[in-house]
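new request in #modeling-help
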Amino acid sequence: ELKVEQNPLFLSMQEGKNYTIYCNYSTTSDRLYWYRQDPGKSLESLFVLLSNGAVKQEGRLMASLDTKARLSTLHITAAVHDLSATYFCAVQETSGSRLTFGEGTQLTVNP
Amino acid sequence: NAGVTQTPKFRILKIGQSMTLQCAQDMNHNYMYWYRQDPGMGLKLIYYSVGAGITDKGEVPNGYNVSRSTTEDFPLRLELAAPSQTSVYFCASSQGQGAKETQYFGPGTRLLVL
């Protein structure tokens, strides 16, 4: 059974600071997704990582994938309040289309 | 394109009642999914479908049923509602090939069972 763990689960940080969210998973996979969810809203796709060493950046967010370590990171650079949300990683099994989600990291960026 | 649409947005059920959560997508996606999200938790897969006429169980299928008679629609049926089914339900769809496997989510249905 594929297990996906994120840490930290809660993150409170000041504007302008940097931080990294980690996503570990338990079985072989080369497809990992990052989503953002605002309170009371649906999930918005941020990044799709499809190979070992993949790195994608959008604004202040950068995601990477290390399939050998079974680890993905979401790095936040110079955080701003608008980044406050819950971030989920989701891993797709090598065979099939099912996604397994992590518990989410609730990020609060304080002025 | 409307993307993925869900109805209703919110519903209160009494224990033992039945209801159908509707989901439709207009992106001609082959794959569709139903998830539930309990407060403060990640999403858990209930059922999914890889095409019309084909459905399969996810992680937490008990108490639910699905059907997929068309590419566009993927309704989720609760037969005998229980308080444990209080949750937010998300429907999603994806093309199903390579980079197009990104799942697009609907706005969700909030269900309260009392």
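bot summary: The radius of gyration of chain A is 13 Å.
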